[in-house]
Amino acid sequence: MHTLPGTGPFLFADDIEWQVVDAGVSRKVMGYDGGIMLVLVRFEAGAVGALHHHVHRQVSYVASGRFEATIEGEKTILKAGDGYLVRPDLVHGVVALEAGMLVDVFAPAREDFVG
After folding, report:
1. What is the arithmetic mean of pLDDT over 7-29?
2. Buried b (16+ CB within 10 A) or exposed e, 8-20
3. Can you list the positions of beta strands (E) in the chain?
4. What's the CA gap between 96 and 23, in Å, rounded?
5. What are the residue boundaries of the structural domains of the chain, listed by start?
6. What's the distance, CA 4 to chain centroid?
7. pLDDT digits (tens, 9 = 90+) for 67-96
8. Residue 2: per-residue pLDDT
9. Which residues contact 112 (CB under 8 A, 6 or more apart)?
10. Residue 57 in contact with residue 88, Cβ under 8 Å?
11. Mean pLDDT value of segment 21-34
12. Are the C-beta atoms of residues 40 and 14 closer than 8 Å to each other?
């Protein structure tokens, strides 16, 4: 029987706390095990997901809002229904052009998000 929020098998958003990441940015780790992680990331208009890189593979879905996304210096505008793929160690980040939410999936799981 799992007792920690986010470790499944069922994931209830009301049971999982938002974590403040930066000014205007918060995340909710919805579910994870060693191999994969699902994270909701909420942005206020103008908030920045700073350029960074990590060893994890990442695919992100724009659930709402509009974002300017940058991957390895290439920029584009993404709207609800769009997404992006980040391979390991590529420099990437976003700027929220309006309030919105990203759904991020990482493989393997981001241990730094839960520890």
Report:
1. 92
2. eeebeeeebeeee
3. 19-22, 25-32, 37-43, 48-52, 57-64, 66-71, 74-79, 83-86, 92-96, 100-107
4. 12
5. 19-113
6. 20
7. 999 999 999 999 999 999 999 999 999 999
8. 39
9. none
10. yes
11. 94
12. no
pLDDT at position 7 is 73
Burial class of residue 96 (count of CB atoms within 10 Å of its CB; 0-12, 13-18, 19+): buried
Q: What is the pLDDT of residue 90?
A: 98
Is the separation of the CB atoms in 40 and 28 below 8 Å? yes
**Which CATH homologous superfamily contains domain 19-113?**
Jelly Rolls (2.60.120.10)
Strand order in the sheet with 100-107: 19-22, 25-32, 37-43, 100-107, 57-64, 83-86
**DSSP character string of 22-38:** ETTEEEEEEEE-SS-EE
Question: With contact defined as beta carbons under 8 Å apart, do 42 and 101 qualify?
Answer: yes
In this structure, which amino acid lies at residue 75?
Answer: K
- What pLDDT is recorded for position 23? 96
Tokens encoding 75: 């920029």
How big is the chain by its Cα radius of gyration, in Å? Answer: 14
pTM of the model as a whole: 0.92
Joined tokens for residue 110: 């981001």
